[in-house]
Amino acid sequence: MNQAGSAATRKVADLSEAEARAELARLAKEIAQADDAYHRRDAPEISDADYDALKARNLAIEARFPALKRDDSPSEQVGAAPAEGFAKVTHAVRMLSLSNAFDDADIEEFDDRIRRYLGLGPEASLPCTAEPKIDGLSLSLRYEQGKLVQAATRGDGAVGENVTANARTIDDIPDTLNGAPDVLEVRGEVYMSHEDFEALNARQAEQGAKTFANPRNAAAGSLRQLDSSITKARPLRFFAYAWGEISEALADTQMKAIERLAAVGFQTNPLTVLCDGPEEMTAHYREIEQQRASLGYDIDGVVYKVNDLDLQRRLGFRSTTPRWAIAHKFPAELAWTRLEAIDIQVGRTGALSPVARLSPVTVGGVVVSNATLHNEDYIAGRDAKGNPIRDGKDIRIGDWVQVYRAGDVIPKVADVDLSKRPDAAAAYEFPKACPECGSEAIREEGDAVRRCTGGLICPAQAVEKLKHFVSRAAFDIEGLGSKQVEQFYRDGWIKEPADIFTLEERFGQGMQQLKNREGWGEKSAKNLFAAIEEKRRIPFGRLLFALGIRHVGEQASNLLARFYGTWDEFIEAMDGAKACEGPEWERLLGIDGVGEVMARSLVTSFAQAHERESIDRLVEHLTVEEAARPDTSDSPVAGKTVVFTGTLEKMTRAEAKARAEALGAKVSGSVSAKTDLVVAGPGAGSKAKKAEELCVEMIDEDGWLDLIGDA
Ligand code: IVH
After folding, report:
1. Atom of ligand 1 nearest to the CA of 317
2. Does the Cβ of 303 fall within 6 Å of ligand 1?
């Protein structure tokens, strides 16, 4: 299929600009495909010599037409490290992200929420630090006895990549620390200054090597090099702003802890200040916003953190973000361009999503040619309640539209310029049938999204579900990516997830068949079966996420897995909750982080015969690993069912519940024979009475604090 020969049939000198552009596009695609076959699937499709010829041809055309060099040019891919090139590191303390705020009201709400959680009145002072949010990539540095022993990227928060050799080449990262605790994990941001970024890109361009779209990409690309001498040649910097595992506390406030990090040898951001209340916080935000352009490095907002570390500890974490910090983001970047077409994509839950195909335009250093249009109401210029958005202006093919990008968020079409609307532009008619399977596409009441009703007969839904199933955060089967899943689905070999695990058995004889297929060699087929075999053992959270149930994302899946522990217990709970009422349903709703929409989606999926049978067929082939519940080995309340009732005076209900759950207890809203302990404050009524009747142990708030060692 890939014919290096035909690519090199015409002399580069004879090519017109248009021909050169087209050929560069084709070469980029062919080389990427060859790379994928070679590196990811271990199944080269072309010879080394043909591959080299393609690369040489690409370079020659780029040399003659430098302006046509593509952003994804294969000449820039040299030395790019595949993710699997680094050893994995499990973080001793998870690396979390931050929740976002976009305006002053969100900051007031942050302050309010914390006060409510801690039970602080409006008069109590609640100082927070405010510091720039550096637009780089986070890194965790582990020091033992003052010596740098390991550096790891964030990865998925739980497991990152070991980049120790590379981190050692960064000047801002000391090899040894003065006067640090025995174990100290320092966390911060690796970034590149504007000046260094410009110089690096100029150097790269001169050498015909990869240039970077922005400093953040340059920093990431430079840190994630398998050859640390490349990292050494790149001017990376590091600001410390947080910590992971520590053998002793750094200080009692965030501010002093940061000062301590500076004292032991780190660069910390000089624009870090202490603010008393939302007003001071947002004032500092505006000051930093003013200075943004002259700082010399990219920042994308301001981070606020509760200063008192004891309060931080009490506030704790949601599944992926701390309650005690928030990122106040700067407004997004904008650009105008032409809307060329609207495509409809069908997702794994049948949602029809309109995608804008745009004339490519640079927004904040990145070329954008696709953007989301959300749903049919958004195109028509109204919100879900029928109120006008963009003053009711609809969006039409051919329109001049404003594209908006905020950080890593998918670009959006935000506005339209009616003065530039072509006369022939007609209002966009959203399809009422699925473009993939022709089934009727309907909108349920209250749903902003139109969905294909084809279910698994819709190839797009089935394939998207399968793609999700094998994706990185799900089963992550090496050699079975989106492309292969599509191929197998088309050929009828894999129709549902369970089929993956019978592939070898069904084609055991037919390994020959797989071998003869385009792109599969004996080695890659064997590797595929081995990779599938490896995933027969799967962590509970991954399995649940892989099922692709609406509203049940990766974090929620892990949360549910940790809560229920084993798959069997979980299934029993789903069956018990299927009527969306009763104690099992209440227990599900009681999980901090599970709302009613998610809970309904979850129980209906397991209750629908079709879907349930498909899940059961799958699970038959698997060993589902029990989820690690929080380490509560020395917790006095692990596994106990606790009910809080009456008024609590030293903590709020939310805090009490979160603490109890963190200690491995189940918190229930009602007293029954299954209750182990009732914590009753003043004013406890019927629940306390019932506990007495059932002879359930009852203690007061102080008793509870004594019990959990927190008095
Ligand atoms: S604190 C537990 N402080 O932003 C909270 N993060 O969106 C740990 N970041 O993953 C993060 N500047 O990579 C913190 N001054 C700062 C930061 C910062 C940049 C990054 C960091 C984090 C991401 C979250």
Report:
1. 2
2. yes
